[in-house]
Amino acid sequence: MKPLTIEEIRSATGGELVGEDTGVMVHEVSTDSRHLTQGALFIALRGDNFDGHAFLQAAVDAGAACLLVDHLPEGWDSAALPCIVVGDTLNGLQRLAYWYRRQLDIRVVGITGSNGKTSVKDFTASVLSQQFRVNATKGNLNNHIGLPLSVLSADEADQVCVWEMGMNHSGEIAPLCEICAPEFGIITNIGTAHIEFLGSRQGIAEEKSALARALPDQGTLIVTASCDYVDYLIERTHSKVIVAGNCRGAVRAEKLRLTDSGSAFDLSIDGEDSVPVEIGVCGKHMVNNALLAAAAGHALGMSAETIARGLNACVLTSGRLRRYESAGVSVIDDTYNANPDSVIAAIETLSELPVDEKSRRIVVLGMMAELGVHADREHRRVGELAAEKGLQVVSVGKAAMQINLGAKEVSQTSQHFDERDDAAQWLKEYTQSGDCVLFKGSRMAGMEQVMHQAFPQEQSIPQAS
């Protein structure tokens, strides 16, 4: 973060300074007193289950340089630390990020979409870092709190920032775009994630298209060739458009094939010679994610060879099709999150992976959240598809029972367990060397717990280089 004065923070947030401005510089912004470093601004946010104002003294003890609050507790010693009082601390955080973004000479790549945002972010950061100093979203800092914190983590040395923008309700993407002012936008796809709150795919498309509308005339929108809303998205921007996809688009993959450690293809960009690429993850959808990143590199003037080098070097955030061996069983960790589209992509990926003639492909699925009235139908649909693909289906958790019922429409071998421990024990007894097992579910399903209990010995399969 670029160092800020207390007065700059007060002015940006529109707050009132209580206490003395000692001239100290703020080097970091934090909303968590447990991880606050010396010289940070502590912002006391309010949530459904917490109030940051209860931790003001902890922030002082940890070395905070300044506090941003909506009130000061009775009896607070105003001489202890400079405090900036605002009407709403979340609004104060967002106003500070908005102002701070405009102090930096950076180019911003904004990423949204129903699936694949973090993988696209990882690929894009890896590609762009071959030629630029890059700042990218860390962890899941992509919502109305996380995005401002991501913006405030950038500094004067950064040249390109790659920031995710997530949402689960209508009207959330546009304010994030206003804060981070993207020049380049990547919309990964329009799926069914968060359909409980958006009502329909059309509603989801309208919300995601806020990124397309926010781009400047001289900006670039990057979209997926296979998305059935691609024309809808293109119609909603005045910027240049790059379409990327498997075997079609200005940036495309040709001669796609699976390898022992991932996926290989020839990267073809209009006007340039094809370049071979091998990424350390399997699946056509992951290749598509890599192509969106390649398009970002192309938009920023990078050569196909340099882009390929970045794709080859990328290591994805954990829980996204990471593979490891456990007692001869190939385990695929795709536990980070799940919605119908990402589960279908995982099922199709597993069904295409080569196994020995006597070995099995097993998919272990937990519930998918935020589907509302669509939940039963969507859980049945993925279970039925998995069985149709010839996979051994294992559903875990009471909320995942419909997966089992859908699978049993095709195959009576489907297994269901209400308890994670029982599922892990069955997997230990059922699996044998040579089998391939994929785990996936929403965060609350806790599928990583089943995975680690059943297959605790982790020895990573070498990634492509």
TrEMBL record:
Its EC number is 6.3.2.10. It comes from the Bacteria. GO terms for cellular component: cytoplasm. Residues 26-71 form the Mur ligase N-terminal catalytic domain. It catalyses: D-alanyl-D-alanine + UDP-N-acetyl-alpha-D-muramoyl-L-alanyl-gamma-D-glutamyl-meso-2,6-diaminopimelate + ATP = UDP-N-acetyl-alpha-D-muramoyl-L-alanyl-gamma-D-glutamyl-meso-2,6-diaminopimeloyl-D-alanyl-D-alanine + ADP + phosphate + H(+). GO terms for molecular function: ATP binding; UDP-N-acetylmuramoyl-tripeptide-D-alanyl-D-alanine ligase activity. The keyword Nucleotide-binding applies. HAMAP family: MurF. This is UDP-N-acetylmuramoyl-tripeptide--D-alanyl-D-alanine ligase. It comes from Oceaniferula marina.
